[in-house]
Amino acid sequence: MLTLAELTSRFPRPGRVEQILVRPHRKGELHDLDAAQLLQDGIDGDHARPGKRAVSLIQSEHLPVLRALSGHDALTAADLRRNLVISGLNLSATRGKCLQIGAHAVLEVTGPCAPCSRMEDVLGVGGYNAMRGHGGWCAQVLRTGPLIVGDPVVVLKDTDSTLARAASPSM
């Protein structure tokens, strides 16, 4: 029988970057990119918060749930103000783990990205509660590199994660 540690370290397949979004300034409009550079403080061109909240991620499979909960048929990832849309990987199961995106970039998932009060403006009354539990995840940059829509997203094994953390200048 597998231990809990073994079970929580196994993923059926890699995820995939579906969308890259950046905002040049606080509260600015998000721009959809085909490719970007992941820098130590976040994605190049994004008004990011360095450190544990440098990059925000949302699971693409949650978008239909959020549409249903908010009553909006046209809700997009840009409306939710997250940087990376990831499919095929349960992001909730990656908390505290390291994700390699493409060949070089590595993020550590640091915690939930709670919805902000702006969701009431975007989604209407109850928008904040519609997003609770589906708001995505925050991550810090451990290794810089290119990000390209379509890149695989792989959860690193604990030994690889330890090496990535040790190599990170932000730690």
What layout of secondary structure does this protein have?
Blueprint: H1 4-8, E1 15-22, E2 31-33, E3 35-39, E4 42-43, E5 55-59, H2 63-70, H3 77-80, E6 84-87, E7 98-101, E8 105-112, H4 118-123, H5 127-131, E9 137-143, E10 145-148, E11 152-155, H6 158-167
Parallel strand pairs: 5-6
Antiparallel strand pairs: 1-2, 1-6, 1-11, 3-4, 3-10, 5-9, 7-8, 7-11, 8-9
Question: How would you sum up this structure, described in words?
Answer:
The chain is of the alpha+beta class and 171 residues long. It has a single domain, classed as Beta Barrel (M1 Pyruvate Kinase, Domain 3), CATH 2.40.33. It has helices at residues 4-8, 63-70, 77-80, 118-123, 127-131, 158-167; strands spanning 15-22, 31-33, 35-39, 42-43, 55-59, 84-87, 98-101, 105-112, 137-143, 145-148, 152-155. It has a seven-stranded mixed barrel with strand order 1-6-5-9-8-7-11. A hairpin with an 8-residue loop joins strand 1 (15-22) and strand 2. The mean pLDDT is 90.
